[in-house]
Amino acid sequence: MSRAIWGPATWYLLHCMVLKIDDNIQRPVLEDLKNMIYVVISNLPCPMCSNHAIAYFNSHQYMRISTLEQLRFFIYSFHEDVNKRLKKETTLSYAEHVVFYKPFNLSMVIKNVIHIYENMNNTNVTMMLYSFHRKRMVYDLDQYFKKHAPLYRA
């Protein structure tokens, strides 16, 4: 499946995960959120993309993030970095990106990501292994949102 399909859906998910959660979450919830985001970026449909994402997260001390605002800015900066690497124009300031993603319907974003990730066809053995891990990620994502649903704004 084309990155043009799963890429935007994944970005919508990552931005909505951090922007639509309650501003006053406790540290354990922040850690759950960070862990879920790491699972998502570790299971992208493109192994090279996942490797780049993991390298970015590790080199930018992702696990040392201690506030929701830091996490929100991290995801914004990560997206900007990917856009630069892919030679795409970056047009949104941090404040503009918040305004852009806030109106998204979280439920629809989640359903779209799950639909896309569940309907990928992998034809070789290596990609089938990635597919197995992606299916586990989809399950974990579903469980994460069931557990934390009261903390999210639609």
TrEMBL record:
Enzyme type, top EC level: oxidoreductase
Keywords for the protein's UniProt record, in alphabetical order: Disulfide bond, FAD, Flavoprotein, Oxidoreductase
Protein name in the entry: thiol oxidase
SUPFAM superfamilies membership: FAD-dependent thiol oxidase
Co-factor requirement: FAD
InterPro entries: ERV/ALR_sulphydryl_oxid_sf, ERV/ALR_sulphydryl_oxidase
Domain ERV/ALR sulfhydryl oxidase: 1-104
A single GO molecular function term of this UniProt record: thiol oxidase activity
Enzyme Commission designation: 1.8.3.2
Keyword Methyltransferase: no
